[in-house]
Amino acid sequence: MTPQAALRDFVFDAAERHNIPGAAVGIVHGADEYTVTRGVTSTRDPLRVDDHTLFPIGSISKTFTATAAMSLVEQGLLDLDLPVARYLPTLRLSEHGERASVVVRDLFTHTAGWLGDDVPDTGWGDEAVSRAVTEQLPRLPQLVPPGGPPSYNNMSAAVAAYLLETVTGRSFEEVLRRRVLAPLRLAETFSFPQEIAHRRHAVGHVVVAGSARPVMEWQTSRAMVAGGGLVSSLTDQLAYARYQLDGNTAGTPPVSQATRLAMQRPYVRMNDWFGIGISWLLRSRGELALVTHSGNVAGLYVSLLVLVPGERLGIVALTNAATGALMQEELLAWALRRFLGHDVVALEPAGSTGPLDEYVGRYVTGELDIEVRSTADQLTVNVKYVGVVVDPAVAREIEKPTPVFFVAPDVVAAESAPWQPAGEFVRDPDGSVGWLRWGMRLVRRHGADVGARQQ
């Protein structure tokens, strides 16, 4: 069977099994390219999904923002190692914040230290980004010092957008268009709802009792564009993937080859399998080094971008239901096996650093409320989202007790996905377990001091 036919069979089967109304999937491998689209933009008003259908790409947007920022770094207009306050002198943090310690690099490596998921909707006016930063940032708790343990941070992307606006004197969207979209000739990537309304675009769905129901609301705000608000097509995402993969583009590279590669090296290491570049999330699968980012917009759209630079393989997936997340891991495993002969291998169990009771407890920060329990000589993790509307089908998966096993000291993998770490316990300076990093977010152990300082 040809790669094109095999990909088609995979996508159609996975979309059917997971009740995904619309999907657009593409793979580049060397000089070859394969695309498959399936389904409809909306179950209420169905239009066929094609290579040019627009999908929100969520947090993949962060890599676009970082590329624009690095073009400014190359021109000497930004310095990753200077304090953000050097460029934003009126920047205010919470009472525990260390303003002078937050450097520009921290905005792109999830190490700014403040609570990262609370980005307000400040509308679509010209001051939306500046208002979000100046009004909300002083209210956010500083979980750990800047440059400390990484924790996924959407507010940092908003600060980065404000920084780009201040340095250039232009809106963030204009900076992005001039420095990334236009040079790469990405004509199907947009920021504003009015740019998207008259083009064919996907509508997000929740899946209830096996039926996909459209949600007729726009899910992002202008303050979130830099961190998760771009909307793009499979055509553009494949062109972007090819550029980020090996530097090839029909247009003009927005940054030099050296800078593009530097963005994909780890500046922060969480464990042996996971690091962070300049907005890229770096994962290991056996001997393979993956440069990745995914996106999830309000549990209604799920996207994936994976690069395997050493093998010239790129994978793109866009879907309009949260159940698209269930297809992502299957797609990655399928593509690595089909194109590289790489099979998924479970990580080897390892002993915990201390007794299991040392990890048991409740961990609470922001939207996450996690209970870690010990039963039959094994830990289980129970995750709940507080104040967040989650697709019922995905909520059932998320809130199932997740048995985990240690793969390194303080690092655990889920039995249901044993090929990669799922979480990591982080210790306070006194050696006690003070945090759980789950979904890349640091979650504080209940009863511990949120302002406690980390090393």
Automatic annotation (TrEMBL):
It comes from Dactylosporangium fulvum. PANTHER family: BETA-LACTAMASE-RELATED DOMAIN-CONTAINING PROTEIN, D-ALANYL-D-ALANINE-CARBOXYPEPTIDASE/ENDOPEPTIDASE AMPH. InterPro entries: AmpC-like, Beta-lactam-related, Beta-lactam/transpept-like. Transmembrane segments: none annotated. It comes from the Bacteria. Residues 9-324 form the Beta-lactamase-related domain. This is Beta-lactamase family protein.
